[in-house]
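Worked example 2:
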Amino acid sequence: ISDVEIGAPPGSGQFGARAKTVAVELSWLAALSRRVEIKALKIDTAEIELAEDSSGYWFPDALEERISPGIAMARKALSDDPESPDFSAIADWNIRNVALTNTRIRLVGKSGDVNSISDLNAELGWPGNNMPVLLSGSGNWRGAKVNLVTTVREPLMAVAGGNTEFTTRLDSEPVKFEFDGVANLRNFFFTDGKLRFETPSMEKLLRWI
């Protein structure tokens, strides 16, 4: 598919994306049953814009839940039973793999300031609801190349807003950062685990961030 452009649903916050090409891999087993099921997406030369809402979120609830109704179901399950939520009624997310190449993401803050992640090449794999999510990729942030590898043990718990096992490794010239433990990804709060942090200059790091 060429020259794809999408915008935000009404009331879901500012969001927009354009891509030169989107390659789609379909499930042949589903096709035999006369169903269309997307297994993988490869998005090339894309520009994505996200705007921070008044609560400080880049993905407002209305937008997330429009992307996948399972997110709303996961949040309700966590609200009903915070100690042991039941996600069994949520159907598996059909798209197992999403790859971005040569992509730019513009981040528009509440104050109107704009930052960009450029030259982004990344891949996200999610085999199933009860399987870990793996995100890996590289990009350019404020003049420095960044490599990132992240694993989320319980993705449904993460999108619901609960704590989950989480590992991440970020490698760049200004900073090297590793975390292995439990985190709340919606609020970017690390609750328990091992943290490793290295920087050649705290002053340059603060300017870069």
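Residues 56 and 110 are 8 Å apart (CA to CA). The two ends are 36 Å apart (CA to CA).
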